[in-house]
Amino acid sequence: MSVRLLLALGFLLTVRLSAAPPTRAEAVAIGESYLQHRWEPGPKSVRHGRDAKGIEVHTPDRPGGRADPPSDGWTPGEANRGMPYKWGGFDTLERFDAGIRAGKTAGDVYTLEKRRLGGAAVSAEAVGIDCSGFVSRCWKLTDKHSTSMLFGISQRLASATDLLPADVMNTGGGHVLLFVRWLDAAKTRALFYEAAPFSKTRATERPIAELTAAGYIPLRYRAIR
């Protein structure tokens, strides 16, 4: 077998392995990497105003008063942990860091106006990740899937009590949470990872009854291993 053919086969194998859907443990570990990611803001990381295309941008920095709760924001001039939320964001950790070094703003919080405008409200001058972008990265999707699109690649579970690590609670056109583990034997409370619309990637404890009452639907990625 020629060296060229061996290299070609090796390349194809690498592509196939890199495109493989994640295991449940891998998906949760990817989420954890976003929560634990450490970064330092640059001089242009904060913005509360319009970008060059007229898109309103508000970073979830604490002094700007945009983080909810304030302790979940990021602080200018300090080392921070967790990737900031950005409407329409789908950045990898490496792309986020490169954007900060290039002088882009760190995140752009959700607003009702952005929901109305959809993709037209996504700023190219900000870096970060939104809730569905976060789940798309955890599931190793090559393209960002919106909360509405997630239904097309998922199986709806009969009950939220069937949730396993790396499943999600999702609302189409709303928010999505990555399930991590149950916090009680009765399965009434659970730990989730999320890209919170007014702050950053974080871990939250949620009562399942409240999520169900709010219209969240339990889903399982069909390709999860």
What's this entry about, in short?
The protein is α+β, with helices and mostly antiparallel strands.
Oligomer category: single chain
Question: Roughly what percent helix?
Answer: 25-40%
Head-to-tail CA distance between termini = 33 Å
Put simply, the count of helices is: 6
Mean pLDDT: 90
> Within the largest sheet, what's the order of strands?
7-12-8-9-10-11
Beta-strand percentage?
A: 15-25%
What is the string of helix and strand elements?
Answer: HHEEEEHEHEHEEEEEHE
How would you portray this structure in words?
The chain has 225 residues and is of the alpha+beta class. Helix content is 26%, strand content 20%. The chain is built from six helices and twelve strands. The chain has helices spanning 3-18, 24-36, 93-101, 112-117, 131-138, 208-213; strands at residues 38-39, 48-50, 56-58, 80-81, 105-106, 126-127, 154-156, 168-170, 176-182, 189-195, 201-207, 217-221. A hairpin with a 6-residue loop joins strand 9 and strand 10 (189-195). The radius of gyration is 19 Å and the shape is globular. It starts with a helix and ends with a strand.
How is this fold's topology laid out?
Layout: H1 3-18, H2 24-36, E1 38-39, E2 48-50, E3 56-58, E4 80-81, H3 93-101, E5 105-106, H4 112-117, E6 126-127, H5 131-138, E7 154-156, E8 168-170, E9 176-182, E10 189-195, E11 201-207, H6 208-213, E12 217-221
Parallel strand pairs: 5-6
Antiparallel strand pairs: 1-4, 2-3, 7-12, 8-9, 8-12, 9-10, 10-11
Helix pairs in contact: 2-5
